[in-house]
Design brief:
This protein is α/β, with parallel strands linked by helices. It contains six helices and twelve strands. The strands form two sheets. The chain has a six-stranded mixed β-sheet with strand order 3-2-1-10-11-12. The chain has a six-stranded mixed β-sheet with strand order 4-5-6-7-9-8, with helices on one face. Helix 6 links the parallel strand 6 and strand 7. Helix 2 packs parallel to helix 4 and helix 5 runs parallel beside helix 6. It is globular. 45% of the residues are buried.
């Protein structure tokens, strides 16, 4: 069965070596068809941090895609932030800021939601919304259609409202109509799975939001352990579904262990 692994907010520069090693072991054990790294790869966008992050990704024996997060733009080097905000990211991860992955089971379309003029907030433009929608409309019936952003399109706590993606309402409406099944993100270090209808009850189609915690960083939040998400197509009777498994790092065992499992009913095509 084809597996997709979402990792997020690695914040290299604050990574924990035992957790990094455990995550590498999880990848070797599960052999995902794709690893999705959904932003905040580094803590302060230094070349050394990007180098460590790229070395980690190169040790994974599977395909992967990545997008930048707000921490991946230099914060204190104002010249670099203004003139070449993605320069160090590009040196380590390549010039494609919105990569795509296609397989018989998955269509993964990524969106760069960072902006040099925003410190933490993200936004999605009308052009980005439409580009993603047009690609979703060309998906095959068998594919689970996933859109990846860094900042969340839905939040569950009042204190996170300021972290919600600017333009999320328009994006959810258009992407749902175009056939999206899942919008996954990171940024707030709080893992959850929720229907996007929690943000907009008028959505024309079932759409799910999948948020990841911080994969390997010491910057855990709210008592949550380091965690990642494993997605598998299928999991229930009916024409279309997928499961989302949260895997948590168990420090005492030195490995990632299964946590909550959500089975998502996907809309018919």
């Amino acid at each position: 069965m084809s597996v997709l692994l979402q990792i997020s907010d690695t914040h290299f520069g604050t990574e924990q070596a035992p957790v990094v090693a455990a995550l590498e072991a999880l990848v070797r054990d599960t052999q995902p068809a794709l690893v999705v790294l959904s932003g905040d790869i580094t803590q302060r966008a230094t070349r050394a941090q990007f180098g460590a992050a790229r070395a980690f990704m190169d040790r994974l024996p599977v395909p992967w895609v990545a997008i930048p997060g707000n921490h991946d733009i230099p914060l204190f080097q104002l010249g670099a932030r203004l003139l070449t905000p993605y320069g160090r990211y590009v040196e380590a991860f390549g010039a494609e800021l919105e990569p795509e992955f296609v397989s018989p089971d998955w269509l993964v379309v990524t969106v760069n939601t960072t902006r040099w003029y925003r410190h933490t907030d993200g936004e999605v433009s009308e052009a980005q919304i439409e580009r993603v929608a047009r690609r979703l409309e060309r998906a095959t019936p068998a594919q689970v259609r996933i859109v990846v952003t860094h900042q969340p399109v839905l939040v569950t706590r009042p204190e996170d409202r300021g972290n919600r993606l600017h333009g999320a309402d328009a994006a959810l409406r258009r992407w749902a109509a175009a056939g999206a099944d899942v919008v996954m993100g990171g940024h707030i270090h709080l893992p959850f799975v929720r229907p996007a209808q929690d943000a907009d009850a008028s959505l024309s189609r079932a759409l799910w939001t999948v948020q990841a915690g911080t994969a390997v960083s010491s910057r855990v939040r709210g008592g949550q352990p380091n965690s990642v998400n494993l997605l598998r197509p299928g999991g229930m009777s009916g024409p279309r579904s997928c499961t989302v498994e949260r895997w948590d790092h168990a420090a005492a065992e030195g490995r990632f262990v299964p946590g909550q499992v959500h089975t998502l009913a996907l809309a018919d095509v």
